[in-house]
Known about the structure:
Thermophilic metalloprotease-like, seven-stranded antiparallel beta sheet, globular
Amino acid sequence: MDQKLQNAVKSGLLDCLNLQPSENLLVVTDDDTREVAEAFYQGGREWAASAHMICMKTAEVDGQEPDAPIADLMLKYDVVVCPTRRSLTHTDAKRNACKAGARVATLPGITRDVFIRTMQADYNKVAERTYQMSALLEKGRVVTLRTALGTDLTLPIGDMPVISSTGLIREKGRGGNLPSGESFLCPVEGKSEGTLVVDASFAGIGKLKSPITIKIKNGKAWDFSGGEQADIMEKRLRAFGQAGLVVAELGVGTNESATITGMILEDEKVFGTIHVAFGNNLSMGGSNSVGIHLDGVVLKPNMWIDDLHVIKEGEWLV
């Protein structure tokens, strides 16, 4: 592999995942992400006691479970890396692997260029910024979002656990994205109210041609508008019934090396953005078990935690 890709793999395996020479590595991939997967496999052959790679059929939607033999295999490794087109982040397979003690990194939709660019970030600084936002969210009870395009959304967060996705997945049983950089949580179920206008990108669609406006009541989306892409998004979520419409996540991006590319893995990490997701929330303390999880990224948000204005037009005030 070329030097830039090798450096990115080295950062991922050695710095972020703390892979040890005595450990074994499993790479789970599909036909659409083989280049990055092969690079991880070659890195594992050099730096781990053993490395294996398994390729599966590309999933239809984010959050779809892999076949049972693959899920079982994930339980048997020290480190599991999942460069796949569709996300395995919010799956039982990933959660169960972590429960078994594996350190799991998911890379949904990853490409060579995105991987090389985002792995150049200083993840110690990303971690510091992420923990700072998480500390503020832990003290709060209600988050309010507003934008010039019409977002006006209230998300009660109560005592829901706040998760710091720093990219540093070094402890047994930890899991997260690579690249990473977000502080996120599951809002209190059934309580979010207002309007969300997504203007950057949406998981499964990419960059938006025009903003998608979503009306939210009692913690669920009930109306979508904004053209063809809005119709596609609504159809995908409604395919899972009311469970697909549940407000599942509020996240704040903390990675200054990430840019809006249309790939949600990177887009939701962009410093100065926020994202709201619908569908499965089990990985963040919720109870909504459904086979879909789709994030929408918002540019230049205003965000309050209780009465504290923490983000103004995308600029952090803290």
